[in-house]
Protein: Peptide deformylase
Organism: Falsiroseomonas tokyonensis
Amino acid sequence: MTTETELLPILYVPDPRLRAKAKPVAQGDSRIPDLSARMLATMYKAPGIGLAAPQVGELLRLVVIDLHENDVPAPVVLVNPEIVAESSETAVREEGCLSLPGQYADVTRPARVKVRYQDLTGAKREIEGDGLLAACLQHEIDHLDGVLFVDHISALKRNMLLRKLAKELKLKAQG
Ligand code: K1U
Ligand code: ZN
């Protein structure tokens, strides 16, 4: 017999929980293994390449990612992640967000970052990269501080995109 991991509902903008600053995860917090497993299942189902705990209403500094490179599953759970180094060189990449479904924009960010975090055993780890990994790490850590990818684009583009999202979500709610 197999038991399905329960999925979590993803919050959409303008839910105020997406704008809150998340709290550090305490050492030995017994909720984290189950919450991170449910976040991974929710991310895979969406589908997405990352998910931050505030996107499922948990104001904790917890992120899951899996870039699905070469179709090989490579889930990473990052507890209390922080950027400890970033390149001065920048890169532009189109980003989406599971909390702003169907909306995309080019975002400029540092091209390379190094992130320090704890794994599920509490061990200190580091992950470093460029390309999609760098964009995804920065996007997810932004979520922990209530920052969305639309905060990195012009006010004109942001307002257009947020109006489009509101219209699309209203139509969806009407069936
Ligand atoms: O945090 C999120 O909302 C997840 C978001 C992460 C992200 C995407 C692009 C650049 C930076 C960060 C997503 O996963 S949006 C969906 C997506 O990008 C994707 C979905 C399926 C296959 C490949 C990508
Ligand atoms: Zn996002």
The CA atoms of residues 96 and 102 lie 7 Å apart. DSSP finds three helices and seven strands in the chain.
